Amino acid sequence: MTEDEDLFLELTNEISLKNNYEHLHINLLTHKCGLRVLKNLIDKALEDFEEGRVTKDNQIIKAYESNRKGYDEFLNKVSLYFVGTKRPTPKDIKTVMIMYADDKNQGTDFTDDLDKYVKQTLLKYALGDAKTLDHAFKVTGAGKGNDLTDPRNLTNSRAYKYVSYMTEYIINDSLSMAKAYKAVQFNIFKGLIHGKGHGKDAKPDKNSQPDKNSLVDNFNLYKWYALNEYLYEKLTDFDNELTESQRQNISKYWDNVKLPRFIEQDLEFKLGG
Predict the structure, then answer these.
(1) What are the boundaries of each domain within the chain?
(2) How many angstroms separate the CA atoms of 235 and 14, rounded?
(3) Of 53, 117, 247, 271, which residue is the least packed, with the fewest Cβ within 10 Å?
(4) For residues 257 and 254, what is the distance between their CA atoms, to the nearest angstrom?
(5) Dihedral of the CA atoms 242, 8, 79, 129 (nearest 10)?
(6) What is the pLDDT of residues 31-43, one digit of tens each?
């Protein structure tokens, strides 16, 4: 199998199995790095299939063909979500524009707020206030080749990795926001995080040390991605208990969400359902 097929199967498991806490907050259900990557993989495979670059034996195509209706609903919902949260890809915009032009979808998939936002954005583009639809819909890094809405770019970026470290410091070590970003700064300075070299060969790297504002801003932007990954790693490591301290720390920095003491993953498949 190709790398994309392997990743598709891995993410299908991660994204598609229900758990006992996702209902507690919309971002626990949707704000997942894997959700973005999974949709991008399916979009790419479908395009490659149309162009003859892959065959029907491709695992992604096989899965799609086994449940077209379910996958189409999934792809549409993900595009609607990322357009609505103002972090779309160009493919999301194209999908939503097709849906918007289809009267059958009016009043069902489009909430009043999303309908209003799409109309205002199209008007902005029509009046020349935005050069392209990508700019009008706020595609991150539009025109710069730096699309952080794709977590395969996001999760490989230093900015996101710093958020992941801050998330662990806050949850596991009960550090405040201020102490968490200072811990990241200190460990970068000592060469323990993205310094020059690794392990015993690590050297201080003052030049790569981010400032307070960028660390805090990125934490607020990506903290739900980081929390979802943190929880999924606990599940896959069979470490499904959250201490009272961890639950309180999560509640403090993640919209007062009250997670259960034991997090569990169901075997019920939900993708496209």
Answers:
(1) 3-154, 158-239
(2) 10
(3) 53
(4) 6
(5) 100
(6) 777 777 888 889 9
